[in-house]
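Sample intake sheet
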Amino acid sequence: MHFDLLTPAKAGQLILDNASLLPTEEIRLEDSLGRVLREDLHADRAFPPFDRVTMDGIAFRATDFSHSPLILQGLHPAGAPDPGPLKPGHCWQIMTGATLPADCDTVVPYEEIELTETSARITEDFETGQCIHRQGSDAAADTLLLKSGTHITPGHLGMMASIGAAQLSATRLPIIRILTTGDELIPVVETPLPHQLRQSNGCTLLAAVQRWGPAKASWTHLPDDFKATRDGIAAALEEADLVILSGGISKGKKDFVRPAIEELRSEPIFHGVAQRPGKPLGFWPGIAALPGNPNSTLTTFHRYLVPLLNKMTGAPAQSTMNLRLSEPLKRHPKLTMLLPVKLNSQGEALILSPQNSGDFITPLEATGYLEIPPGSDSATHGAYIPQC
């Protein structure tokens, strides 16, 4: 069946429309980095939970200060309970992180005092209430701290530890099976004959998935044979949430991906996008068939599959921004261009023009891609899609 070429926007929307949110599972706090939180988390008490001292120094009542040295009453370290009443004209030596004693209102750091064995003389002007992180100034008890859908970072993990969230509800890890095709491809450890190439797309896609986030991902290479292609896809579909194919999706005599999937499932939701690179991109629910040229494979992964994985896991949608090109670029009259770029010192997009979709050397310095729609004029801006 013939399929008209879709715009990238339409293709991307159809992919998201056919994505299902994965179920949740309970995980330990220490296993949560990179996972997607699926519950709202609230402060279990005020933050900070007490008036917290922010500098090593002395704590005292400002009304006791009369330009004479204050007498040292003792040491109040972090982690100690309130030390009790402070005598008039006295001060506590106090540590960062300690509770502010109940009858003190000011802290002066050691750098601004002259200390003896028995007294402390303040040498700089101070303000009443300084060097104190007030109770509840960051968040009141029961404040919403992390929303469901948060992609957990090290900072988030520390926050969750501080509220005692030892067990969390998170999206189950997606199961991803990567299938590469091509009889011309051989294992990396082998020496290619003149007509052969070392396999690169499989390890590239596997690394791209791992860079995106935690997943149960694996990679298998299939020969250019209809039965082997069909059986390999069938086996992957039995266990995977998403099957990613690379190659075999164009119109060549040995491109068996589409007929193999159609025998297993049905016709694609779409096959063909008006873009360069990546024109032969095809999609079925749970199956993404990417073109086999290295630049096409990685470009279409970031443009289409990163948003898909984000939706499957409940992660925030990928943000894009409109960037100025370092130099105007003539548009393609019919195809959207997806070009690898890096940012120059002015924050402009500098295009790293590959020679063709098989050129994966020129774009190595890229930090993302610029999407430039077709037209008859020259483009000065484009939508920037960062690499994950």
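Comment: The mean pLDDT is 93. DSSP finds six helices and 26 strands in the chain.
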